[in-house]
What does this fold into?
Amino acid sequence: MNRKEKHPYDLDRYCFRDEIEKIFDTNQLEKIHEIEKCDFNVLNLETDQTTKLHKKFYENVGETNFLNLYKNFLKDIILPHFNVDLLYQKIPTFRVQVPNNLSVAEFHNDKSYSHSPYEVNIFLPITDAKETYTIWAESIENLGDYSPMNAEYGEYYIWDGANLKHGNKINQSDISRFSVDFRVLPYSKYDEDNMKETITTKTKLKLGSYFELMEVNDA
It folds into this structure.
């Protein structure tokens, strides 16, 4: 695949930010580091999904309309890019990058973290994500020519995070970046016998556990 494609979407129809603001009880997500106590150390593999902000998201997202919007976005926006039956990540991965910190622990490609090389990543910023407060990724596998995946709220990337190395620089801005990312996998590429588990949460990368099925004919 080795691609990074940026697309717009309708914010009135998929108002993800409104639901995230409910979780954190603020309309100033970019200043969350001033509202919440975010004095955690630079994130590493053990902590980049376990800060107080991550816990608040995962514990409360089910009380909002976020997951319903997410499924509609998958059905209406993402599935047509592929037009095949897809496995999709049940709960998207939450990211927050406060000033002077990272959102992922190290530069990597997802296949090095037990994911299938056939998975496709979607990067969905909830705030603007630019320069040192966004993902940096190479353009071709193993080329090492990292550049920022700049996007505004209302844009998303479909890209090859399974194979392209990517990570973060230290956020040198004075704002925090919120985003979610998730993976889809063509059902034809699903090999249950060889699916492993995630590095951070130890979730089995299987249908019914990490993935759910979305069929073209049901969309």
In short: The CA atoms of residues 46 and 65 lie 29 Å apart. The first helix runs from residue 16 to 24.
